[in-house]
């Protein structure tokens, strides 16, 4: 019998990754997925977007509901895939669990430790499963690195330097959208870096005992001298702006699911990045002290000319370096032993993989849910592991509010983390 799915949140991720993936669209899923999965309904608060998504799937008659409860009452399913905005994760996941569904919630698990704990309590109460879409674990180098470090290849982990660098287009895209509103994403350390923080904690198999952080917004600020428009769609400088988001790109899918749905909820997908409406930081550093004694320094930069990431981990017997190059975007993984000898580990990348979501990781994540995966059990992100990434971002926000002072996990769990001070009030030294 096929596993029946509901997808909640029919934006880019719900439609482009999961709904198309389950139905086996080329580059989004595999043909055999459709033999195992049945997508029975879509759910979105924006009914125009929900219906547009059904048309994109070539299933114009697919039922579209405003809530999971309504969907489950009319077209019962087994699993609910949650791809709504981050701050809505808690409510939607709990609603789905209470309606009797298992849940795959896209990362981050939630926007605060408090919400994660409420989800975990609901999971235990209902006896259902919750899996978190930490798809970066399905990348080509991360599992190998986790196995090497956990297997003792570099000895005891002592020091970590890590960073996520987002290029102008990728980094700027968060400042076009809801992500730049702290009350909806809890900032990019949560929304975006939960991937990298999860990978870091997962590779070294450890959890944080203290976090401190600094952040600022110096790049995505008002730039009236540029004579830009309110949104990319009506901007005079769009042909030269590295942040231009083209709502007509590809075959116009963004125009159909976002622009043509604006009348429903007023959400504009391509607002100009140069604005003072943002309440999240565009660069941030986080220091983490881990339970086993390792110290990490992690940086986020959202305005690098080109994107990439790195994790450099030094232990008592050697060093491991992995990431994606800012030169050519290629993944790399290398290991150095105590004598200084390097082993370069070949990462096999299928030439077509980059056409798939996240280098094929999204397809591998869905394959796992359908019992068609060849992945390692280590790659499945549990709620406790996903909570750990939210915890570090949550503590980082609390540290910033405390002027950069270290904070411990006891500080989180009772409320939503404090929004960062407005960037324009930050001291410029
Ligand atoms: N794993 C990854 O690599 C990855 C990548 C991008 C985004 N994401 C995550 O996927 C999620 C969705 O991101 P997106 O870029 O698709 O956002 P989006 O804005 O394109 O879509 C979100 C959709 O959710 C709907 N929605 C919001 N609240 C709702 C509610 N309570 N009930 C029903 N519908 C609701 C909105 O109307 C919208 O259609 C986010 O949590 C994001 O963090 C994960």
Could you characterize the architecture of this molecule?
The structure is a single chain. The protein has 429 residues and is an alpha/beta fold. The chain has 15 helices and 14 strands. The strands form 2 sheets. Strands 8-9-10-7-11-12-13-14 form an 8-stranded mixed β-sheet. Strand 13 (331-337) and strand 14 (342-344) form a beta hairpin. Helix 7 packs parallel to helix 11 (194-204). The radius of gyration is 21 Å and the shape is globular. Residues 8-14, 43-46, 49, 83-86, 88, 92, 106-107, 133, 135, 178, 191, 358 line the site of nicotinamide-adenine-dinucleotide. Nicotinamide-adenine-dinucleotide binds next to helix 1.
């Amino acid at each position: 019998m096929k596993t029946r799915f509901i997808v909640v949140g029919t934006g880019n991720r719900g439609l482009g990754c999961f709904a198309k993936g389950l139905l086996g669209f080329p580059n989004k899923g595999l043909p055999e997925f459709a033999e195992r999965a049945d997508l029975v309904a879509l759910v979105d608060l924006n009914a125009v977007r929900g219906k547009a998504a059904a048309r994109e799937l070539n299933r114009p008659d697919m039922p579209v509901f405003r809530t999971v409860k309504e969907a489950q009452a009319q077209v019962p399913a087994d699993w609910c895939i949650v791809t709504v905005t981050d701050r809505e994760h808690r409510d939607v996941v709990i609603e789905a669990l209470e309606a009797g569904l298992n849940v795959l919630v896209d990362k981050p698990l939630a926007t605060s430790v408090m919400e994660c704990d409420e989800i975990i309590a609901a999971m235990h109460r209902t006896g259902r499963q919750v899996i978190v879409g930490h798809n970066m674990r399905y990348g080509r180098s991360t599992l190998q690195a986790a196995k090497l470090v956990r297997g003792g290849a570099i000895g005891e982990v002592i020091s970590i330097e890590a960073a996520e660098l987002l290029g102008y287009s990728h980094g700027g895209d968060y400042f076009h959208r809801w992500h730049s509103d702290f009350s909806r994403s809890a900032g990019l350390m949560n929304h975006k870096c939960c991937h990298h923080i999860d990978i870091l904690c997962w590779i070294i198999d450890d959890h944080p005992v203290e976090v401190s952080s600094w952040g600022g917004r110096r790049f995505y600020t008002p730039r009236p001298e540029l004579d830009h428009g309110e949104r990319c769609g009506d901007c005079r400088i769009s042909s030269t702006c590295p942040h231009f988001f083209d709502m007509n790109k590809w075959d116009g899918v963004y125009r159909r699911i976002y622009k043509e749905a604006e009348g429903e909820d007023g959400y504009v997908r391509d607002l100009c990045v140069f604005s003072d409406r943002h309440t999240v930081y565009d660069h941030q550093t986080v220091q983490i002290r881990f339970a086993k004694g390792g110290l990490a320094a992690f940086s986020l930069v959202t305005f690098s000319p080109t994107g990439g990431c790195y994790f450099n981990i030094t232990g008592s017997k050697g060093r491991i370096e992995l990431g994606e190059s800012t030169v050519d975007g290629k993944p790399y993984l290398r290991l150095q032993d105590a004598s200084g000898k390097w082993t370069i580990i070949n990462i096999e990348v299928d030439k077509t993989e980059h056409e798939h979501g996240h280098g094929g990781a999204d397809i591998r994540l869905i394959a796992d849910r359908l019992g068609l995966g060849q992945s390692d059990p280590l790659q499945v992100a549990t709620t406790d592991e996903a909570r750990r990434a939210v915890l570090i971002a949550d503590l980082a926000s609390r540290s910033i509010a405390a002027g950069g002072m270290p904070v411990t996990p006891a500080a989180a769990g009772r409320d939503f983390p404090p929004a960062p001070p407005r960037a324009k009030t930050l001291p410029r030294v």
